[in-house]
Specification:
It contains 7 helices and 7 strands, in the order βαβααααβαβαβββ. It is of the alpha/beta class.
Length: 243
Amino acid sequence: MKITGPLFKWFGSKWLSSKTLPPPNFPDIVEPFAGSAGYSLRHCYHKVILYESNDYVRELWKWLVRDATQAAILDIPINVLEGTDLRTIGLSRGQLLLLKHWQRTNNVGDCWTVSPWGNKPGQWTESTRSRVSEEFGCIEHWHIANSWNGMDAFGQQQVWPATWFIDPPYQYNYQYKSAPLNYRQLALEAERCLGQVIVCEAVCQKTNRIPDYLPFEFWAKRITSRRKEGDNTHSRELIWHKQ
């Protein structure tokens, strides 16, 4: 069994991009900014340690790793009507969080209603539910950190060589309501990490500013949102890689 897609949706997923990113060189993968952990999912049989500052995302990861069952996932309904408050349909906390992150893609707030796109292909459909119920067991050996204390505190705790996949909120893009980052400090910590380090960034879509806290190189151009044909939104992705 291997994972063939994300277990839930979140901002900036690297699931598709991870196919072309450098593969891990070490048995352990550490993601200080986990999100939906697309890179680690691609290499799920490694020992993975996730840190995540968003309370809902961290709680969902813990449920998937520790408490979820195939039956519980298969019991989550599909085709819930647009506008339905998911808290009113009798789900457990873990089921509720999983459905929220498929029916309200990229929602960082406290809204629990099914969005207009919630039942479209690529969201929580019968095939998605079946796949997630079969594949989530691949991460039962992962570790989800209890809290996020910043890169400096984190770097003090992890002293063995690992593959560090660092995908922070991009400096010149939307910050997902997260606390402001000290990008210079982040660069110092990334350079100090033992082992392989992969840091992702992007060119500012509005001003074309290029983050310079690390010597980034152009990596790929990818679609971040799909609109009318030929009018998609693209991101010019950057990477810094230390082996």
